[in-house]
Amino acid sequence: MRVLIAGSGAREHALAWACTQGHDDVEVTCAPGNGGTASFAQNVPVAADDPDGIVRTARDLDVQLVVVGPDAALAAGVADACAAANIAVFGPTAAAARIESSKTFAKRLMDSAGIPTARWCSGRSANRAALQEFVEDLGGQCVVKADGLALGKGVTVCGSPDEARAAIAACLDEQRFGSAGSQVIVEERLRGPEITVLALSDGSNIRVLPVARDYKRIGDGDTGPNTGGMGAVTPPPGAAATPPATAPTSLLADIERDVLRPCVDALAAAGTPFAGCLYAQLMLTADGPRVVEFNARFGDPEAQVVLPVLNADVLALLHDCAHGTLAPGRVYPAGQPAAVGVVLAAAGYPGPPRRGDAITGLQQLDPSILAFHAGTRREPDGTLRTDGGRVLTLVARGAAREVARDRVYACVPEVHFEGMHYRTDIGRD
Ligand code: AMP
Ligand code: GLY
Questions:
Q1: Tell me, what CATH number does 160's domain have?
Q2: Pair (360, 304) in one structural domain
Q3: How far is the CA of 205 from the centre of ligand 1 (A)?
Q4: How many CB atoms lie under 10 A from the CB of residue 415?
């Protein structure tokens, strides 16, 4: 079987790796891939968000399944183009991916389907007075968001009306997020621990994966600016791992019934069925779980910890989603149900990163450690160099979170590149 993975991050490296587990006969191509995927897959210089390029590559290589990683590729219609060309694809159409690419669309769908989420108000420049009134109603305890895709940077958590006013002005007046911020959402500010729940769907059935948590801020103790994600853990502190033999935790059962099922049903009823990975970010508030946002793809870095613990044939699951043949139920973690992933970032990140520093130490790592590459490239002479902000995700598995955490942090200092930095508290309670 030949599989084409669209994307170049550590999530796509993890997907490519997962597709080869238990399959000697799978050939993986990555578009465009990175220095890590180059070691076991074929990299082709095609952008993930180029629908024509992906279809052409899939045809040329006689690919049986295209797996789309990034949100921008989904919003650009890569899945639509594959479907139109009769190529099986894991990933929703651009219409179904609006659950991520338009926050207003997602909020409307949640309200009409009765999915619990923060109260909200959305508008453009012309409705600024309504936005401002909602901010006052909330006493300034609100979150201001650019409506469109803003690389995870379009969100400002506010503690006063002045902060909210400035955040609205950043979108509407200063156009800091370009067209993604020409429409703004103001939400009630929720409080509580956050979790990520991923579910595979074929458009009608769903399979819920083990729960995870990502760490979005750059600094230990959740300080400093937001990033694409500095690490992830499964299961998160406070949410027990679910061994195959025991009953499902009621938290996941509730989230499946109240959040994931109604979302998939609403998208199907609207004529835009969702086939791919539905990502629910939830806040566990005193009043129960509330959706912070939906994404239309695997999370990065959540994929790097969730995929390695699955007791399942990942390629078969992705194939079933693409073909409408997914069996309902759960996907449970395997014998080592916990995993901790630490992102090693380049000098300058989350600002513009420095590129081109030589990376050493990966060859000597304990073979049980998974090193998923993101911003790396392999030179013709074999030297591996940094080539982006998030350079690598190192992942260790273990019988318990603490074991996985100790294992991964024991290995981090063995890897070196100039300016490397990382969080030291991933997976801590
Ligand atoms: P998002 O890009 O929507 O995932 O938001 C980024 C981060 O902002 C989330 O991980 C939350 O920590 C925070 N956030 C977003 N929406 C809310 C909300 N309604 N209440 C509190 N925090 C929020
Ligand atoms: N980990 C957050 C995201 O993938 O959007």
A1: 3.30.1490.20
A2: no
A3: 28
A4: 21
Closest residue CA from atom 12 of ligand 1: 194
The per-residue DSSP string of 124-168 comes to -GGGHHHHHHHHHHTTT-EEEEESS--TT--EEEESSHHHHHHHH
Does position 106 have pLDDT exceeding 80, yes or no? yes
Ligand nearest to the CA of 195: 1
Strand partners, 376: 386
112 φψ region: left (φ > 0), alpha (ψ -120 to 50), beta (else): alpha
Closest among 159, 182, 160 to 104, alpha carbons compared? 182
- Residue 347 sits in a domain whose CATH number is 3.90.600.10
Q: Which of 100, 197, 281, 343 for mutating ligand 2's site (highest number of atoms within 8 Å of CB)?
A: 281
Cα 301 to averaged position of ligand 2 atoms, centre (Å):
7
Q: 124 and 218, same structural domain?
A: no
* Whether residue 86 sits in one domain with residue 45: yes
pLDDT of residue 335: 86
Nearest CA residue ID for atom 2, ligand 2:
299
- pLDDT, tens digit (0-9, with 9 covering 90-100), for 265-315: 999 999 999 999 999 999 999 999 999 999 999 999 999 999 999 999 999
The residue that leads in pLDDT, 230 or 243, is: 230
300 in contact with ligand 2, CB cutoff 6 A:
yes
User: How far apart, in whole angstroms, are the C-alpha atoms of residue 1 and residue 144?
Assistant: 45
Number of domains in the chain: 4
In degrees and rounded to multiples of 5, residue 27 shows phi and psi of -110, 125
Ligand 1 in contact with 196 (CB < 6 A)?
no
Q: Whose CA is nearest to atom 4 of ligand 2?
A: 299
pTM confidence score? 0.94
Question: Does 242 score more than 70 pLDDT?
Answer: no
The confidence score (pLDDT) of residue 152 equals 67
The reply to whether 230 and 209 lie within a common domain is yes
In short, whether 338's Cβ falls inside 6 Å of ligand 1 is no
Domain region containing 211:
194-330
> Among residues 302, 330, 358, which one ends one of the domains?
330
pLDDT digits (tens, 9 = 90+) for 160-179: 999 999 999 999 988 889 88
Separation between Cα atoms, residue 193 and residue 202, nearest integer Å: 30
